């Protein structure tokens, strides 16, 4: 049977470690790590994610500053709020939940965040640092994927990793992190030809296509480690709905290890946001 990698338990460990370090920062320097959370509009999934992020921040001793803006907020107002957060010494991390309403240009918004407070790691300066391997804040979901992989893999060097999905939020940065660990990385996407055959060669599969059940059991090499980043709500015949990942996990008994959905990558994304916020708070408090 494949090992089930418990993302919830690992996220709790990371959160507790952040809480201990945050308490130390308060005691030794009088600095309370602070996170500004900005949500524009009422996307139901975003509301859930933002709620989770703030709840976990509170558990870790991080102060959140919540900014809920109406869906028709002008871009200029959002940029002005970001400028205020950049200038606010109590705010060490700034998170603008994506997606934004269609009249707002996400690139303009992400560019406006001070790279030192960019706890999502989406600012071009942090993207550049990641691609050149020169530090910077690293996007939370990819960082969570690596921490999950590290629970079952000691030595990444030379392993074949296949990433499914080429998004800026997950696919591209996770590929860079795997490359940094000297994996041989193949990035694939929805138009990739012979995707099952490419996945069959992989020691590590990171599935981030947002396509429920895409990766079938017979795509996965025996012993491979499968990280399932997909979170899609799927309607059931009885009218209810359930969350499904990108992998048909019931077909993966021969894998070496797999992450569950829910309870795998999701909790780690939140825990890594807390870790990034603490890192940003420490960096600016010396
Ligand atoms: N929307 C989906 N994932 C993310 C994320 O990691 N950060 C932000 N800000 N928005 C998201």
Polypeptide structure, described:
Helix 1 (7-29) packs parallel to helix 9 (265-284) and helix 2 (44-59) packs across helix 9. With 286 residues, this protein is an alpha/beta fold. It has a 6-stranded parallel sheet. It has a 3-stranded parallel sheet with strand order 3-2-4, sandwiched between helices. The protein has a two-stranded antiparallel sheet with strand order 9-10. The chain contains 9 helices and 11 strands. It has 2 domains: 30-117, Rossmann fold; 140-266, 3-Layer(aba) Sandwich (Rossmann fold). Helix 7 links the parallel strand 5 and strand 6 (184-188). The termini are far apart. Guanine is lined by residues 95-98, 120, 140-141, 169, 269.
Present the secondary structure layout.
Layout: E1 3-4, H1 7-29, E2 34-40, H2 44-59, E3 63-69, H3 75-87, E4 93-96, H4 106-112, H5 124-132, H6 140-150, E5 160-164, H7 171-180, E6 184-188, H8 195-200, E7 204-207, E8 225-228, E9 232-235, E10 241-244, E11 257-258, H9 265-284
Parallel strand pairs: 1-11, 2-3, 2-4, 5-6, 5-7, 7-8, 8-11
Antiparallel strand pairs: 9-10
Helix pairs in contact: 1-9, 2-9, 6-7, 6-9
Bound molecules: guanine.
Q: Which regions have little confidence, pLDDT < 50, spanning 5+ residues? A: none
H and E order: EHEHEHEHHHEHEHEEEEEH
CATH architecture field of the largest domain:
3-Layer(aba) Sandwich
Report the structural category: alpha/beta
Number of strands: 11
Overall pLDDT: 97
- Our count of helices gives 9
Question: Helix content range of the residues, please?
Answer: 40-55%
Cross-sheet strand order for the largest sheet: 1-11-8-7-5-6
Ions, cofactors and other ligands present here are: guanine
Kindly estimate the percentage of residues that lie in beta strands according to DSSP: 15-25%
CATH superfamily of the largest domain: NAD(P)-binding Rossmann-like Domain
